[in-house]
Write a structure and sequence with these properties.
The complex is a heterodimer of chains A (135) and B (274). Chain A contains 3 helices and 7 strands, in the order E-H-E-E-E-H-H-E-E-E. Chain A has 135 residues and is mainly beta. In chain A, a hairpin with a 5-residue loop joins strand 6 and strand 7. Helix content of chain B is 15%, strand content 24%. Classes of the chains: A mainly beta (135), B alpha+beta (274).
């Protein structure tokens, strides 16, 4: 049994808050769910805060200008329960990382992080447990 | 002969008892938790699964070439999938008086902007759901929670006292507890009006009265709420029961809550609802 990633479904699942105090807005109210993009840059800061952690990345664009990106992701309590703590992110501050996610529709340097790959090749990726590929 | 046999038999029992005692003292086996407290009530104490909603996805972790998956069991935040013995009859949604139904829809349509829980607000009772830890004492029961808005606690007297007459309204209200057979009933009143008692724009007035019921369902904790607010509801609303599993995960302080997404929203789409 393998998990298959589906950006929209993952994000919807991440945002779903049934009967909850972890309520949250719709992904479509902020992020462009039709496009997933990849960004490589230097991890500059990690804010381990509710309702979702924030990961800051400085990335050079095509003309060499540095863009300071902010990505939100899952809540700390969720990450802790799947075996990830703040140190797993913060130990990579200053290193090159690659992230995959969805950009905010307001065009700002803001996105939702679905996957982060660290310099050592290790990675965390949110996947949809309902999209199971039985092949 | 018979006397010698009895002596040997008695000595054997003494030695066996002594050995058992030594074994018990030096290498204790699993501790069997009594099903009831000393005062005869079912023992609800312990850590219970986090039943406040969290994202439903799974995490794929690649570490040194090894791939693992982790996913939360969030069954406790959803209505029980099978009938729960002892549960009260329930309905999917509260019934508001006709003159308030438009307001509920207005709030529902704009919940991404108006629901304070989205912005680190206190969920209050009953939206905080079932506690992460219950400490059941002879004259009071303590509920501990983990929540992004802070980590609230409730101290629920069970000594027969009435509700406080001098308490200020609060998010978690004034609670008293009592037993109905094997069900622990928590009766709460005196709420602020800032909260919703559920997503979907379920506003209320200060007259809200919440009854929470807790009982054991095997090793699990069954939990069901009834909300009444005669100012706005046509009748008390009882929600579908939840079944909360025991947990070995220790409680931890929640991280600071900082939410500034409101200015980024360019529509009023709201998240998936129950």
């Amino acid at each position: 049994m393998r998990y298959r990633t589906s950006g929209v479904l993952v994000l919807l699942a991440m945002m779903a808050a049934a009967g909850s105090a972890w309520a949250h807005h719709s992904p479509s109210s902020i992020f462009d769910m039709s496009k997933k993009f990849v960004l490589t840059g230097t991890l500059t800061e990690v804010d381990w805060v509710n309702p979702h952690i924030a990961v800051f990345i400085a990335a050079k664009n095509a003309d060499g200008t540095v863009e300071n990106w902010k990505f939100e992701s899952a809540p700390p309590s969720w990450l802790r329960r799947v075996g990830v703590n703040s140190g797993d992110f913060k130990k990579a501050v200053g290193q090159t990382v690659t992230v995959e996610g969805n950009r905010a529709r307001d065009g700002s340097f803001y996105g939702f992080l679905q996957k982060i790959t660290f310099a050592d090749g290790n990675s965390f990726e949110m996947v949809n447990p309902n999209a199971v590929d039985s092949h | 002969m018979r006397h010698r046999f009895l002596c040997i038999f008695a000595a054997t029992i003494v030695l066996a008892a002594s050995a058992a005692a030594q074994q018990s003292a030096s290498a204790p086996g699993p501790v069997t938790k009594p099903a009831h407290t000393i005062d005869g009530h079912p023992d609800l104490s312990g850590n219970w699964a986090y039943s406040i909603a969290l994202p439903g996805g799974a995490l794929k972790k690649v570490e040194n070439g090894s791939v693992t998956y982790a996913q939360l069991d969030q069954s406790g935040r959803m209505p029980a999938k099978t009938p729960v013995e002892g549960a009260l009859p329930y309905t999917p949604a509260p019934s508001y008086k006709p003159e308030f139904q438009a307001k509920v829809k207005y709030l529902l349509d704009r919940e991404a902007k108006l629901d304070k829980v989205f912005y680190c607000g206190k969920p209050g009772v009953p939206r905080i759901s079932s506690p992460r830890k219950i400490i059941q004492l002879p004259t009071e029961t303590i509920f501990l929670y983990e929540d992004a808005s802070g980590d609230p606690y409730r101290i629920i007297p069970t000594d027969g006292r009435p509700h406080r007459a001098d308490a200020d309204p609060s998010y978690y209200g004034d609670s008293i507890g009592y037993w109905e057979g094997n069900t622990f009933v928590v009766d709460s009143t005196n709420f602020v009006e800032d909260t919703w008692f559920g997503e979907g724009g379920y506003f209320h007035t200060s007259a809200m009265h919440v009854t929470e019921r807790f009982w054991k369902a095997g090793e699990n904790l069954a939990y069901q709420i009834t909300v009444d607010d005669p100012n706005v509801l046509t009748a008390p609303w009882t929600q579908a029961p939840r079944v909360i599993k025991p947990s070995t995960v220790p409680l931890e302080e929640s991280s600071e809550c900082v939410e500034d997404d409101a200015h980024r929203m360019d529509n009023l789409d709201h998240h998936l609802q129950r």
